[in-house]
Amino acid sequence: MSEMFTATILCLTLIPVGIVLGFLLLKIQGGEESEL
Fold first, then answer.
1. Would you say the pTM of this structure is higher than 0.90?
2. Cα(34)–Cα(13) distance, rounded to whole angstroms?
3. SS3 string of 1-36?
4. What is the distance between the alpha carbons of residues 22 and 36, in angstroms, rounded to a whole number?
5. Which chain regions cross the lipid bilayer (predicted)?
6. Nearest C-alpha neighbor of 30 from the set 22, 9, 19
7. What is the model's pLDDT at position 30?
8. How many Cβ atoms sit within 10 Å of the Cβ of residue 26?
9. How high does pLDDT run on average in the chain?
C-alpha cells in the first residue's frame, strides 16, 4: 500500500516541479530577449 502512496506523492510533486523548471528554463533562455 505504501508503494502506491509514494508513487502518488511523487507524481503530485514532480508534475508541478517539472512545470516550474520548464518555465524557469524558458525565462533563462529568453533572458534579455523576451519572445512571448
1. no
2. 29
3. CHHHHHHHHHHHHHHHHHHHHHHHHHHHHHCCCCCC
4. 14
5. 6-26
6. 22
7. 79
8. 13
9. 87
Residue in the block written with cell 517539472: 18
Half-sphere exposure of 6 (CA within 13 A, CB side): 3
> pLDDT-based confidence at 1, cuts 50/70/90?
confident
Q: CA 27, CA 24: separation in Å to the nearest integer?
A: 5
How many residues are given for the chain? 36
Residue at 22: amino acid letter:
G
C-alpha–C-alpha distance, residues 12 and 4, integer Å: 12
